[in-house]
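haha ok so turns out i had the wrong file open the whole time. this is the CORRECT one, sorry everyone. sequence first:
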Amino acid sequence: MAFNKKFKIAVFLPHHEGLEYWLGPLLGVKKAAEEFEKFGVTMEYINYKYNSAAFKKIAQKVLEGKYDGLLFAPIFNDESVLFLKEFKKKNIPIVLIDSNISEIEGLDYIGQDAYQSGYLAGKLISFGVKSDNNVLIMKITREIETTSVYLQRINGFHSFFKENKELSNYKFSEISIKDSEYNTLSKDMFKDINSIFVPNSRVYIVAKFIKENNLKGIRVVGYDLLKNNLEYLNEGKIDFLINQKPEDQGYLGISHLYKKLVLKEEIKITNYIPLEIIVKENAGTFIK
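then structure:
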């Protein structure tokens, strides 16, 4: 039965052009939108280019809009905190996906526990390795990385080794580059490196360099089932990918807002997506 009352949800996400990961949440949102349309639920899609200046400009327009709910991915931590503090004054339901903002109370979150996913990455790096190990944390960013999820993953990664004192033979170094600076990579950066952790979806950039330069014996761990990541995983240039299930996050986020707006369910949730480890042997169903 169709509902007479209409509910408009603001879907506030980065543009997915050139950022394959962000197509996932959008597909999940659109699937949910089709399902809940008959109940009077509609979406307004609000996107911004992946930089903080563009985000702040569009965020102001969102603050000025009239909505019944908000689905939001807080990419830029400081800017997102300011935006959410203002948006909360509207006293309407907010669901965060991809990254959580713990310093603001009363927000619902659907996504991975970023700290635990970084902790898991540390375990994957160390799994079955007893000898000395030089680990490179490769930070590959679109601009200066300020996302809370990114920092939480790195903190979780270091915590794994701090809590496991028997792994004192692991040594760590860090390199930061922009994703447009592939030509700045050199063999010297990878000299004596046994393992590489990339705390975001751009792990394919490292895998490409490893393949082109025929580097051997380096364990590589990263995130997300992007097409390039899956191809390099299948070729053995990436060892482990941690899947965030972005499409599920988008679908569940809208589903949760539907329950609040239409069914009037008074629920507060932190719904952690299970940490899913993808290796070459179980990646077949994801490769198209």
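The mean pLDDT is 92.
again sry for the mixup
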